[in-house]
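subagent[fold] <- orchestrator: predict structure for attached chain, return tokens only, no commentary.
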Amino acid sequence: AGLAANTFEVIGREWYAKTAPTLAENTRDKMLRRLETDVFPWIGARPLSELAASDLIKLIERIEQRGARDIAKRVHNYVGRIFRYAVGRGLISRDPSRDMELKYILPAADVKHHASVTDPKEVGDLLRAIDGFTGAFSTLSALRLAALTFVRPGELRHAEWKEFDFERTEWRIPPGKMKVKEQHIIPLSTQALAILREIQPLTGSGRYVFPSERGGSRPMSENTINAALRRMGYAKDEMTGHGFRSMASTLLHELGLPHAVIERQLAHGERNKVSAA
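subagent[fold] -> orchestrator:
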């Protein structure tokens, strides 16, 4: 193909057409709108092979200067994914977005503690985005289970098959793994059991439910869940692996469930303090 066919906009739209079907409609529309307003008018006509990190820095700074820090981060994510798609297609040899450090370009924000999505409509969007996740199956399964069990990210990563009782539909996490140093019992819903049964043929012969991609003797890496959320377009001040906990707490409180029961299921505090519950 000639240079004209390999402009950023042509390849960007090709990437978008392949990505869009996996996304929630709202996410899809926002993504296209951002590309059409903040990216294509500035670098769309340029051949991919000519673009360098300095061009992307200008692009990102232009968005940040109008105070749209989150959009700047989101756009950096999209642009990088388009470049990596082009690398995979053999159109360019390197993704220039990897040659820039966002933290040096965007001023530090006041990051909320354990950012989390709590608006019910946005939670729906997040769950649909998880269902459309195209990465490793074990990461997809871990994301789904995180939303249903709202355990701490470390407890999820270190989940071992021997802790699950399919008959009693329970996950019993031993005291040594818990922040409060007491055994924690998680009742498993039908949906949670289905996720475990689905991944069992893949990882059930090993120790960990979610082993490391680099080999089954270690658990999934600490960054896997957060990296998956970034890949789905959630910035780190929007949603984190820990955020599933505040998401659950907010929604369950809004549904009117007793505070002590929610706290107990989140494994906050000692058991004797909530013994009445």
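orchestrator: received. Logging for downstream: Strands lie at 164-165, 170-173, 184-187, 211-212, 215-219. The chain has twelve helices and five strands.
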